[in-house]
């Protein structure tokens, strides 16, 4: 447990620092919006590409790690859809349901990579990158489809949804990094120096942005919808992830990484998507904030159980 907490502590300290900076030194929303765009479109994709380029995938159980996380995200997505009638009887409308869905299935990639790197170094980053390849396309497709069906004021065509996925910089980065790795394309030393520098900065800035994006108001009175979103992501998802990882025969650091990725709180980018597509953005902000705070307790426990 001590080793796990030591690995997680820097992650949550940076998130807290982001909260403090948003309320003191950098109060303007435009400042954080610029950092968020820089991280999302440049720094973080470069980290993904470089991590996958350098990863020795022959030593990574791609099918096991990726399979366990893909199936867990799929099962959680289908479970949320199955719960829709019951949630409607609790007076949870369509837009609120989309926020529960995103809160239960999306994950904070900055936290996932930072925790994995702190636990196992480059091997942990490689495993987390495999996890991202398995999860990001699936949850993005499901999230957009659910928002289109339950919340969007304008129904979007299948072609529009597909283009939204194609334009996602994280999906593109995973595809590029995997292609370079599998094709063994040579890259100059200058590329590696620049990519490594950009990648190193992405996690720290990403965690600061995560903290700045938290909405602390209203946390003392969470409603039933927020409580459901927190339970599904922080309790049920790790249980699913661990069970599937064991079923896939994973152990050691592979099992720990699947557990860590399953226990990660939802991404703040889900809030942006909710605002753009008619979801209940205030509810999702509450869910993400509660998850991020409570994950400081639930993540160490989940990881320690399998470490």
Beta-strand content bin? under 5%
Rg: 18 Å
Major sheet, described briefly?
none
Overall, the morphology is globular
* Number of separate domains: 1
Determine the fraction of residues in helical runs and give it as a percent range.
over 70%
**How many alpha or pi helices?**
12
Describe the protein in words.
- The protein is built from twelve helices and no strands.
- The chain has a single domain (2-22, 48-306), classed as Na+/H+ antiporter like fold (Up-down Bundle), CATH 1.20.1530.20.
- The chain starts with a helix and ends with a helix.
- Helix 4 packs parallel to helix 12.
- It has helices spanning 2-22, 29-54, 62-89, 94-105, 109-150, 158-166, 169-183, 189-212, 224-247, 252-262, 269-277, 281-306.
- It is globular, with a radius of gyration of 18 Å.
- The chain is 80% helix and 0% strand.
- The model has no long low-confidence stretch (mean pLDDT 86).
- The chain is mostly helical.
SSE layout:
Layout (H helix, E strand, L loop, with lengths): L1 H21 L6 H26 L7 H28 L4 H12 L3 H42 L7 H9 L2 H15 L5 H24 L11 H24 L4 H11 L6 H9 L3 H26 L1
Helix pairs in contact: 1-5, 1-8, 1-12, 2-5, 2-7, 2-8, 3-4, 3-5, 3-9, 3-10, 4-5, 4-9, 4-12, 5-7, 5-8, 5-10, 9-10, 9-12, 10-12, 11-12
